[in-house]
Input
Amino acid sequence: MTSLSYTGRELDINLPVFLSEKATGNRNRAIAYLMLNFGMISEKIDETLDLYFQQCSIMVNARDLAMMAATLANGGVNPITGERAIDEHYVQDVLSVMLTCGMYDSSGEWAYRVGIPAKSGVGGGITAAVPGKLGIGTFSPPLDAKGNSVRGIKVCKQISRDFGLHLFNVAKSEHDLKAWIEGDELIDNW
Output
């Protein structure tokens, strides 16, 4: 599967970022060797790390982040192209890891307050997937002390609250999510 499957377009790798990640990724190397020790990854450490560093260096925009999330929310099928990006069997695993670990050291608080599987990046992006409903992509580089986009967190919290999207929410939302997405409903505090 390629980035095209998720986003509908080919994505480029930022070569200077890749080379920097590769040159300074000693912590990731240590983690990779620890994983190898426990039989969690193959012995192709350098290849695995190169792939990881390339993935960390992919250039995306907010639309790409939203399309990736929408693809996961749609069971692994890109909702625009109809192309399967990831086997349906793995979507639950990916979303579970996103919910529990995707927001760095804020993951527990995120799960409690926002309740949407998400992954942030140190460039300021957040991709968040609400299974069966929608994908959210935000990009705003100012980061908090834990490495997450300050504005991206606020946007996701607001959307989750206004539309009752927290995974454990049992109350009915006062707003119509579909009407808002289609532009038919305006919300005062937006």
